[in-house]
Specification:
mainly alpha; two-stranded antiparallel ribbon
């Protein structure tokens, strides 16, 4: 038995070997995430970020603009409080400059609206795989460095006989490295901000602890500078690094014999760095005002509920979908504080549960994946009791510098900013929010396991750790491919987040885009049977999302689009098509009430097309010319660039015998699409009819003849092209 213990302790003391083993484990379990593409917020930080796609020429904008401005192209805050995390987008921009090629369309370099050449960072390139590799590499570095930090805190002399320190440092790091809760941060490119934040914060902690063990003034100065720079970079990656203003002094108090007054001195440069960061952040964020931003939005604040006096009515007669009547700024109200507090306490317990049993996992904890709770809920009471016990334990061990006390304080302090206690964070919870706090819990568990090993045999405890590590590794390896792309992720996680309005909304959006891409690639305007079935299956998802949050503008918009598309399918009878169009129109009207400013133009364009379709249907199918004209004029009002509406108006006025109006609208349609053959024919006919009505208008006949010649040449060109294709 002594030989076994000696063998184990010998291996635990091989610090460099253990560090490399940890890094290898981190890389191996996440290696199958490298083939992944883009998912979720990768759009914000990479492939829809116009500053990143400019490469090196976008760096100044990344550091001076609010984060969401890069995707919305509007000087507004998409999230209350704004976001400014320039470090990772900067790295992505540099990566795009070096590793991505210029985007080419029609054999020309693509430029954005500002005239900058755009880099091709689409999922069809190798760029996402390179960034996924970088994520895995950085995570491996982080895990290896975490081991170094824990060794410095627990065993600064690297004494091979300090078995407790060697055991705790290795086990805590191993549990952290292989914890499935970190999959979101590592398997998603956007998660690099979490990795770099913790890496920079730990580097700052390491540097300030090193000061205590360094005698030469020159070397002390080096560690101070390294600590300051590391802390600033961590803040640039994500604001949550600011919690290390408390963690660093706390670590110095617990693990060194540094005097309190000296610890206070170390605190000063950290505060200066934090102040500089907050000043720069405020300057960048203040440039983007809350224009068109609805603070009372359930997807931005999970602690909102519908006013009890809110009234509903069917969207259209006989519809199961309900719309709110007379909405105003008081339709959504803050839920009672005790419900908010109880719901928070429940999520705290769920975090602890996931730290112990990380299954099932999901990227989406938006309302109402977590139901509104009160203090009669058993889960809330159980969570409250556990947290009271943990707080008591942390306080009790503070004076005698108990490691578990430090671990729990680390957990609570780093968790505080994402706990929804200090301020609402926009969602009930998220797995990535445990990326930093889980360091504290893994350390606490490692200390407890060492205490158990003193009563039981160390090899049995390590065998148990090994078994857990294997299970966790399996969960990570299985979870990584789920993050392949948005569609894969959302289809999978909907099984877990069944009551989340956001995941239903996002899945509808992604699936609609997939159908559109398929149509574009096929060059067809007709839907396949499978595509029609896909569209029909999306309707219940929209209805369920609207039942959770009836003011969800994006869902109303997509619900309208789906109904509008289904109205275009030839398989449906005319009665069904008309019902789809009326439903789409009413849904577009709801969209107008709740549409974010960035979607307003798109909403008007689609609503105008829907009105055009209704105008055509009432004119061609029902022969109701007055109703058709009413819809078409409303289409014109919604979008002045709707060439089809003008085309149909020209036809309607021609039928009505108002030939001057027919020419007027035919000319407007032609001005917008001068190469469209049917538009040219329509205008030529309108010219001829008006010329026959107004004697002596030879100019109209000449215009008509010119258009007819252009049409003849165009048709001949198409015929020749088709003949050549057949010959080939």
């Amino acid at each position: 038995m002594q030989n076994t213990h000696h063998f184990i302790h010998t291996w635990l003391s091989k610090h460099q070997l253990m560090r490399w083993a940890i890094m290898l484990c981190a890389f191996v379990v996440y290696a199958n995430s490298i083939p992944n593409k883009w998912a979720v917020d990768d759009a914000v930080v990479v492939y829809d970020n116009r500053f990143v796609k400019r490469g090196i020429k976008g760096l100044d904008s990344l550091f001076t603009q609010e984060m969401m401005v890069a995707t919305t192209e509007v000087q507004q805050q998409a999230i209350a409080g704004g976001r400014w995390r320039p470090l990772t987008p900067m790295l992505f921009a540099l990566g795009a400059e070096v590793l991505a090629t210029d985007k080419i369309e029609n054999r020309k370099q693509v430029r954005d609206k500002a005239g900058f050449i755009v880099k091709d960072v689409s999922e069809n390139t190798n760029f996402p795989h390179i960034l996924h590799f970088f994520n895995v590499f950085c995570y491996a570095l982080l895990c290896g460095f975490l081991y170094e930090v824990l060794l410095l805190l627990l065993n600064p002399a690297k004494d091979k006989e300090n078995h407790k320190a060697n055991f705790v440092a290795l086990v805590a790091t191993l549990l952290y490295t292989l914890h499935p809760l970190h999959t979101e941060a590592v398997a998603n490119v956007k998660g690099l901000d979490e990795i770099l934040t913790l890496l920079g914060a730990l580097r700052a902690l390491y540097a300030f602890v090193k000061i205590h063990y360094t005698e030469k003034i020159l070397y002390k100065g080096f560690w101070v500078m390294l600590g300051i720079v590391s802390f600033f970079l961590a803040l640039l990656a994500k604001e949550t690094a600011i919690t290390f203003l408390a963690i660093i002094p706390l670590a110095l108090f617990f693990f060194t014999k540094e005097k309190v007054k000296n610890i206070a001195l170390y605190f000063v440069p950290l505060c200066i760095v934090a102040g500089v960061f907050l000043g720069l952040r405020q300057q960048a964020v203040s440039n983007a005002q809350l224009i068109g931003f609805k603070s009372m939005h359930l997807m931005n604040d999970p602690f909102l509920v519908l006013n009890e006096n809110a009234q509903f009515e069917p969207l259209v007669a006989g519809s199961q979908v309900r719309k709110l009547v007379n909405t105003n700024e008081n339709t959504l109200v803050k839920m009672p504080y005790f419900n908010q507090f109880a719901t928070n306490i429940y999520t705290f317990g769920l975090y602890l549960k996931l730290l112990v049993l990380p299954y099932p996992l999901t990227f989406d904890y938006y309302p109402r994946h977590i139901a509104v709770k009160d203090f009669t809920d058993v889960g809330v009471i159980f969570s409250l009791l556990i947290h009271i016990f943990l707080v008591f334990w942390a306080i009790k061990g503070f004076r005698n510098k108990n490691i578990i006390s430090f671990s729990l304080l680390f957990y609570f302090i780093t968790f505080s900013l994402v706990s929804n206690i200090v301020f609402p964070i926009g969602t009930n919870m998220a797995e990535r929010f445990m990326f930093m706090p889980s360091v504290g819990m893994c350390l606490a568990i490692a200390v407890l396991l060492y205490n158990f090993s003193e009563k039981w045999q160390t090899n049995y405890v390590l065998a148990g750790v090994g078994m857990v590590s294997l299970v966790f590794s399996g969960l990570i390896i299985a979870r990584n491919p789920v993050w392949k792309d948005n569609l894969t992720l959302m289809q999978n996680d909907l099984k877990t987040s069944k009551n989340s309005a956001k995941i239903k909304a996002d899945l509808v959006e992604v699936t609609l885009q997939k159908v559109s891409d398929e149509l574009y690639k096929s060059g067809s305007q007709e839907f396949t049977v499978e595509q029609i079935e896909t569209l029909q299956n999306l309707l219940p998802l929209c209805e369920e999302a609207l039942d959770i949050f009836p003011m969800f503008g994006m869902v109303w918009f997509n619900y309208a689009r789906i109904n509008q598309l289904l109205a275009q399918t030839p398989q449906n009878p005319d009665k069904a098509k008309l019902a789809y169009l009326h439903t789409a129109l009413e849904a577009y009207k709801q969209t107008q009430l709740y549409t974010p400013i960035t979607l307003q133009k798109k909403q008007q364009e689609y609503m105008s097309l829907c009105l055009s379709d209704l105008g055509r249907f009432y004119g061609q199918k029902l022969g109701k010319l007055p109703e058709a004209l009413a819809y078409l004029h409303e289409a014109e009002k919604q979008d002045k660039q709707n060439a089809e509406a003008y085309f149909l108006l020209a036809t309607a006025y021609s039928i009505k015998g108002e030939n001057e109006k027919a020419v007027h609208y035919a000319e407007k349609s032609y001005a917008l699409r001068p190469t469209h053959i049917e538009t040219k024919e329509n205008l030529a006919i309108a010219y001829k009819i008006l010329a026959s009505e107004q004697k002596g208008r030879q100019d109209l006949l000449l215009k008509a003849e010119k258009l007819l010649l252009e049409i003849q040449k165009a048709k001949q060109g198409l015929l020749n092209s088709d003949t050549q294709k057949r010959l080939k």
